[in-house]
Specification:
By secondary structure, the chain is of the alpha+beta class. The chain is built from 18 helices and eight strands. The chain has helices spanning 13-28, 34-50, 56-78, 83-86, 169-175, 196-212, 221-232, 240-248, 259-274, 280-297, 302-319, 326-340, 348-374, 388-422, 429-455, 459-484, 500-517, 528-540, and strands at residues 91-103, 110-119, 131-137, 150-159, 180-192, 424-425, 491-495, 542-544. α1 (13-28) packs across α3, α7 (221-232) crosses α16 and α10 runs antiparallel to α11 (302-319). The radius of gyration is 25 Å and the shape is globular. 38% of the residues are buried.
């Protein structure tokens, strides 16, 4: 039995997996000089090159060791932390910052985000080049700073703890490579305004907000907030009650611009540009350019950038006329992200997004194929004799089985990461995602259609699209409320030890990768090993209750 979802090869995993292990080892162990580690990695690469055609086992070992040492070295380079910083008390600092990312907030005169230190007082010169989190106020008559602008700020500089609590905001900042935060700051001067391109992106974001509210914001502002959160990643548009409902149902991922959003938009762009019959290079370039503009306008969120890289890697096969290989595209995307932003490996967003996509490719698609091959409800009846009700049952069952296989695969990862990052176990998540993900796809397509109509000056079209998506969003809201009321739908939970969560996720992905390579054969346990591993972790590694 031939399977289209099995047999994909991803040679880059020989580098990506040991490199990621090196990053993890660098985070756990003692910090070493990156120069010596890089020299050792280069030596290992040279040994691998010499043994490539003579000793395959030595080649694999040398290549893996080289990638591992490169990961440890890159962690040391990006997480360099001088011992003296740990002893620094909070102090007033006058800094010149380059704004790299701005977080959306509810306070009109306060701006928060991530920046790079460009200038300091002489006694703080070792901070130059360091990334930090900032929270500053600006005068009411001045616009807030945009990305790429350079600003002078005066505030309280604090050193982040070396070992922050897992669920804290400090842990997020530490995972992003930050060592400092600037709190209670005041913007004193704009040294250089934002570039024209960043001003254009900010203006387009304001226009997107206006288009998505056309015709519906005055009547149903809460649904407009959900639409903006889903299309633009503006989670602050959700009310506190809405946020809790989606979190308890395990569907909060719908409001992070990630693989689902980028994949749906990329598919829509591909279909739209195919109608124009453009040459392959023009089609490829135009598709990625429009997709990147969407990513950049909505804030260049790390999850969106990662999804864009994966889509670009997958679509590159289109221009070179090669078979699509989603597993190789996933490996390439992860390798590129970890090479330039290695600290993302420790973020909840990276682990959840790449973990779930890997589970879909390694387990979900092969499982769906197996179930669909066995689904033959009217095998004894000739196809010519099938009536509309036979076809409805057949096609409806196939769609349901496909979605169920995808949902079962994703829940294996989300069950572990939900406990690790949110201290919540949500058994209702499988049912909720089966119901809401197809609806979310409709909302994303409707929102994109609304944006296209608005940008083209067709205001009536935007209003119609917004009303249509509003109907779907109202149904989603009703479904989430009913699911959240189910007894036992969500439980407070925590691991007995902090290391159990990352180890369980790594073990789960390792089991899936090994079983995928062996073809999910019965002699190796069939489809049961990943589910057995998750069950053992839940039974012996998790404490349920507050």
């Amino acid at each position: 039995m031939t399977s289209r979802s099995l047999g994909h090869r991803a040679p880059l995993l020989w580098l990506v997996l040991p490199y990621a292990l090196g990053l993890a080892a660098g985070d756990l162990g003692e910090k070493f000089a990156p120069t010596g580690l890089l020299a050792a990695a280069g030596l290992g690469a040279g040994l691998a090159w010499l043994a490539a055609h003579r000793r395959p086992v030595l080649w694999a070992a040398a290549l893996g060791a080289s990638a591992f040492l490169a990961g440890v070295a890159n962690h040391s380079l990006h997480r360099s932390r001088l011992p003296v910083w740990q002893e620094l008390p909070p102090r007033e600092a006058d800094l010149v910052l380059r704004v790299d990312r701005v977080f959306a907030g509810k306070h009109a005169q306060r701006v928060t985000g991530l920046a790079t230190v460009l200038g300091t007082d002489p006694h703080l010169r070792e901070l130059r080049g360091q990334p930090l989190y900032f929270s500053v106020r600006h005068r009411a008559e001045e616009p807030p700073p945009l990305r790429s602008s350079r600003i002078r700020v005066l505030g309280v500089l604090e050193t982040l703890p070396a070992e922050p609590a897992e669920e804290s905001f400090d842990a997020y900042l530490s995972g992003a490579g930050m060592n400092f935060r600037l709190a209670r700051g005041q913007l004193t001067e704009t040294v250089r305004p934002a570039s024209r391109y960043r001003v254009f992106c900010a203006g387009m974001l304001d226009r997107f907000n206006a288009i998505l509210g056309a015709g519906v914001e005055a009547k149903r502002p809460e649904l407009t907030g959900v639409l903006r959160a889903m299309l633009l990643g503006q989670k602050q548009a959700l009310g506190d009650g809405q946020r809790e409902l989606f979190r308890h149902s395990g569907t909060m991922h719908l409001f992070a611009i990630s693989g689902l959003h980028i994949g749906v938009i990329a598919a829509g762009l591909h279909a739209l540009l195919s109608l124009l019959r453009l040459p392959r290079p023009v089609h490829f370039t135009a598709s990625l350019l429009i997709l990147w503009l969407y990513v950049d306008i909505t804030g260049t969120m790390p999850s969106a950038v990662r999804a864009f890289i994966m889509v670009a890697a997958f679509q590159s096969a289109f221009i070179f006329r090669l078979p699509g290989n989603p597993l190789a595209a996933l490996a390439a995307a992860a390798g590129i992200v970890l090479l330039f932003a290695p600290m993302q490996l420790f973020s909840a967003s990276f682990q959840m997004s790449y973990g779930i996509v890997a589970a879909l490719l390694l387990l979900g698609l092969p499982l769906a194929e197996t179930w669909l091959q066995r689904w033959r409800p009217f095998a004894a009846l000739p196809a010519a004799a099938h009536g509309w009700h036979h076809r409805l049952i057949n096609h409806g069952g196939r769609a349901l089985l496909g979605m169920l296989a995808i949902g079962v695969a994703s829940i294996t990862v989300s069950a572990l990461t939900g406990i690790q990052f949110f201290r919540l176990f949500t058994p209702v998540a499988l049912l909720a995602n089966l119901a809401l993900i197809p609806a979310a796809v409709l909302v994303i397509l409707g929102g994109v259609a609304s944006l296209l109509c608005g940008l083209a000056g067709f205001a009536l079209g935007s209003s119609l699209c917004n009303h249509a998506t509003g109907v779907v969003l109202a149904a989603m809201d009703h479904a989430v409320r009913r699911l959240a009321e189910l007894p036992g739908g969500h439980w407070p939970a925590a691991y007995h030890a902090p290391w159990i969560g990352p180890a369980a996720l790594a073990g789960l992905l390792g089991v899936m990768l090994a079983a995928y390579g062996l073809g999910w054969t019965k002699r190796t346990g069939g489809w049961w090993p990943p589910f057995a591993l998750v069950a053992l972790v839940l039974i012996f590694g998790v404490k349920f209750g507050p």
